[in-house]
């Protein structure tokens, strides 16, 4: 039995191999026992580099837009995932893989930290400080994911034996968070303020991830303090070119707090992208931005579409926040060599100058995008050759630090100019200007807490659409029981769509608009009730009694007495 337990909780076993890799984006050349490893600086470097591997950041990197698939920002032609349909179980593959991969990562951090202490006085103190700082920061990050996802979790900071693994129980989340904060604080002492290259973590990185962990826990005093510490270091700044940050060949940006590059050339680390590409380009257009996301983008006066006099039902991209046009393709514009207009039977092939059948309209193809929308964020012609791409895993941007700071101050009702500045810095960048040019963008000026909360949540949704951040926001704000219990709403099928286009009720009907609620959620039910007959295509299901935590893997719960399953599973 103990041998079987080791196979499940191998990350917690004594003397587990420490994978080494010479470069951040190379496959590991060898495994080495921690008994013989860590004898020189090069071996520490190999071990530290391994912590930057994609598979150790599983919840962010195991597939394209892993968590966005479960949210109200995503539409996939009636396909539902286990989490968003209430079918998640303790045997679901990614539940176990997340658990196991993250504990493997933690054990590798523990090995580095323990061996740094053994080598003090023998090797360079400056270099050893960096290795320990990186290991502590990453350990804190990995434990943050685990406790956010699973609640009370096993916590250890050293090698443990098989018998200890077998007897291991779950430590209270509140105690785990204290230890996570301690690791982040120690990391900020040890890490350098600057480092070679754009990838390696620094003092400001640790402050930023501490702010994220505190935000996940709704610990707003700590979140504000950590975000402010990051901001004051001046290590990161907003990239003036929002759109370019998400291209596959953008490996460096002053805004990247933490990014892991993928590489087609080095190890063929590719993601199949056909589901996200237009059918006119031989893609499938199966997974697309949702109508809810489309409606959530504010108008250029800073008001939601159900309140703004600028909203144009017939031209719904007009007078909208520019990030809408960066996220999904505007109607009537060219995209990847074709005119994009799902209301037409034929569109222009820009390369040939000829009109062709519009396979991206439900008027022609029933499997064309059911929302009439297609992803634009990060998409380039490089995706087209084999329908595969190697997008960078952008795990945190500086815009997130600014908005975490603003949110924390809003929730504590400590609203001052710094709060408005943080939000306006992010918003003005979208309009390609700066905060002081208030005539060129809808600056946030209110100091009312409820109004600012709405603006902040709207800002996060517009800024981080399809960046794996929406699910975390819905979870921590406890909005899943509203957002996920609403059905997926799509444009009507061909016959009704033809009627709408002919009558002028495309894209939005003349008798109804979505309701943009105070919590930032979008209620599409008025469209379903309208004469234009939008359709419900999938029911989602969320049980708040259990859904805000994942189940522990069944194998560990079954074999380890101290592993008590989360309620409801």
- Name the average pLDDT: 92
Total number of strands: 16
Q: Major sheet: size, sense and barrel closure?
A: 2 strands, antiparallel
Task: Please tally the helical runs, counting DSSP H or I stretches of 4 or more residues.
Answer: 20
Distance between the termini: 24 Å
How helical, in percent, are the residues? 25-40%
What does this structure look like?
By secondary structure, the chain is mainly alpha-helical. 38% of the residues lie in helices and 9% in strands. It has helices at residues 2-8, 41-50, 58-61, 93-119, 125-150, 162-167, 173-190, 203-216, 220-233, 264-267, 291-296, 322-327, 398-411, 417-430, 449-463, 470-476, 480-483, 494-503, 525-528, 554-559, and strands at residues 18-20, 30-32, 74-75, 256-260, 271-272, 288-289, 333-335, 338-340, 346-349, 354-357, 388-389, 393-397, 488-490, 515-516, 522-523, 535-538. The chain has a two-stranded antiparallel ribbon with strand order 1-2. Strands 3-6 form a two-stranded antiparallel sheet. It has a two-stranded antiparallel ribbon with strand order 4-12. β9 and β10 (354-357) form a beta hairpin. α8 (203-216) packs antiparallel against α9 (220-233), α8 (203-216) packs across α13 and α13 packs antiparallel against α14 (417-430). The model is unreliable at 1-8 and 11-32 (pLDDT under 50).
